[in-house]
């Protein structure tokens, strides 16, 4: 996208025209095809990026796309098999998804999270032998979860909800605070 650059703009901003102004005619901004085309493509990128086909008769497509985008990142439900008992209302992370537990379930049953976000590409440090209950830190240098301190491992995220041997690439995490803070 770009700022309007057609005749009559004022530093990339639209100007209202008035051909009958007392001081003489004021030229308004000419809306050109380059700017309109850029605007159209920016809006269509959001719509088509959420899997919606453009439809001339539907003026709710941008709204639908934005709702889908929000649902994908903060509003959807995520289910998984609980490795341990979980309590309704608790913040919880399972693999790369974190959210709030909707209903208490016991170990081995299906738990549902109201998703509040995702950790994308966060693995555990390959050398760590993690035991359930270990305090976990995010290492900004290696971009991994670890039990170690020092280096970039200065952000405590929670504690391990399951054991994870060195060969394991991920570990379930119980967050220490609300995940949306």
Strand order of the largest sheet: 5-7-6-8-9
Report mean pLDDT, rounded to a whole number.
Answer: 82
Structural class: alpha+beta
What is the gyration radius calculated from CA atoms? Answer: 25 Å
Q: Indicate how many domains the architecture comprises.
A: 2
Terminal Cα span:
32 Å
| Percent of residues in beta strands | 15-25%
Total number of β-strand segments? 9
The biggest beta sheet reads:
5 strands, mixed
What is the number of helical segments per DSSP (H or I, 4+ residues)?
2
What is the molecular shape?
Answer: elongated
Percent of residues in helices comes to: 10-25%
Show unreliable segments.
none
Write down the secondary-structure element order.
HHEEEEEEEEE
What does this structure look like?
It is a single chain. The protein is α+β, with helices and mostly antiparallel strands and 181 residues long. The chain has two domains: 33-74, no CATH class; 76-175, no CATH class. The chain is 18% helix and 24% strand. It has helices at residues 33-49, 61-75; strands spanning 77-81, 91-94, 97-101, 110-118, 123-124, 135-139, 144-146, 153-160, 173-175. The protein is elongated.
